[in-house]
Amino acid sequence: MASGKPIDLSRYDKDTDGTRVVTAISIIGIPTYPKITNPDDGTHLVHWRVHLRWDGRGGVLAKGSVVLDTYKDDASDPIVRIDVYSKPSLVSSAASKFWESQSKIIESDLTVQNVVDLITANGRERYKYDGNGSGCLSWSSKLLADYAAAGYVAATEVNTFTEFIAQTRTREEGVYWIPDDQGTYL
Questions:
Q1: 10-residue averages of pLDDT along the chain (186 residues)
Q2: Which candidate in 18, 52, 124, 179 could, as Cys together with 113 as Cys, close a disulfide (CB 3.0–4.6 Å)?
Q3: How many C-beta neighbours within 10 Å does residue 35 have?
Q4: Gap between the Cα atoms of 38 and 178, Å rounded
Q5: How is the chain split into domains, by residue range?
Q6: What do you get for the CA distance between the two ends of the chain, in Å?
Q7: What range(s) does the DUF7770 domain occupy (predicted)?
Q8: Report field, pTM of the whole predicted structure over 0.85
């Protein structure tokens, strides 16, 4: 059995962000940069990742988040590294476009660190891309299912997200590539 890579926590400010109470979980898709295209039709690949969010001033979500992301160190190596990092803004101003599906938290007092710990508790840190080498959407979807199973978000959020992806694929067909690649947990 192949082993996974250690989770990269080097950019995660655990002291500041680990104790924040999560009020929403967003799954965000952003066109890849540098641009990666579908070899069949030239459409632009969309990369998906999970953002843990908390309340800011005035009852609105704060601009920052903690990101749970998959990253390939080497294009020829299908085993990905899981990155957990603190981010001062939700999406970079350099992003040409993004898509967001947001789920409200139903468990009170859920901290960022509780959610980060669920990655290893469920073995989601040992993952490899299959198919086109783009299993980020599958990984992000699996985390959302884990959150629903743990009671962090409503179980209906999984279907809501699946519908969101189907609608986004239809709307962006011919321009953006949102593959349905499945990964493998090691």
A1: 83 96 96 91 96 92 95 87 95 90 92 96 93 86 96 96 97 94 90
A2: 18
A3: 10
A4: 9
A5: 14-175
A6: 7
A7: 38-186
A8: yes
